[in-house]
Design brief:
heterodimer, A: mainly beta, globular, B: globular
């Protein structure tokens, strides 16, 4: 069955550190890839998405992600994090290229000032 | 971005009662809405796909008679948890699909069944 894995459950970084959160999926067909962020007490918001084209996608707030098809990965990166990036980050995959999303378990990111 | 609102955001009920949760797309029409369930420290699990004017499509393992979904208009979908039990306590989240292909999520509704 198709699945999405986020191996980092809780990441703690200092401000200005670089960030990379892993996301892997298991499916050899067409996928749509998403990263969502959930700030404390708020609803899920879309950070960025990949449907096709350039595998390096840029999203809001300085985030980017790279789709590496051979590795079935879509890792999220940010070169310099801020305290305000403290949140829960979810990778999501639309298998078969549709809108029904399968979510990873999420990664809690804590930024220390 | 577009706005999806859920109501209530928090509800406590007695075991055996039914609870209705509303999901509204405030500034766009959503022919498709999705309902998810999130357990503490776990991921969102898709429960069902709600299509306006037709029956919802439930994911495997989700009891359709227990979780009644109605999508009567292009801006409103409701989830009714019937004869709720403590194991139904969870965080329920909906999302609306805009015609641009983007999903917008509600704030979630926390259900506690005593």
């Amino acid at each position: 069955a198709q699945s999405v894995s986020q191996h980092n459950h809780h990441v703690i970084l200092s401000e200005a550190a670089s960030l990379e959160l892993g996301c892997n999926y298991s499916y050899g067909g067409t996928v749509n890839l998403f990263w969502y962020v959930q700030y404390p007490g708020q609803h899920l918001q879309l950070l960025l998405k990949y449907f096709s084209g350039d595998p390096l996608v840029k999203g809001i707030k300085g985030f980017e992600a790279e789709f590496i098809k051979s590795k079935f990965s879509f890792n999220l990166r940010k070169p310099s994090v801020q305290w305000s990036d403290t949140a829960e980050y979810f990778c999501a995959v639309g298998f078969f290229g549709n809108e029904k999303l399968t979510f990873g378990t999420g990664t809690r990111l804590t930024i220390i000032p | 971005g577009a706005v999806v609102s859920q109501h209530p955001s928090w509800v406590i009920c007695k075991s055996g009662t039914s609870v209705k949760i509303e999901c509204r797309s405030l500034d766009f029409q959503a022919t498709t809405m999705f309902w998810y369930r999130q357990f503490p420290k776990q991921s969102l699990m898709l429960m069902a796909t709600s299509n306006e004017g037709s029956k919802a499509t439930y994911e495997q393992g989700v009891e359709k008679d227990k979780f009644l979904i109605n999508h009567a208009s292009l801006t409103l979908s409701t989830l009714t948890v019937t004869s709720a039990h403590p194991e139904d306590s969870s965080f329920y989240i909906c999302s609306g699909l805009r015609n641009t292909g983007e999903l917008f999520f509600g704030e979630g509704s926390r259900l506690t069944v005593l």
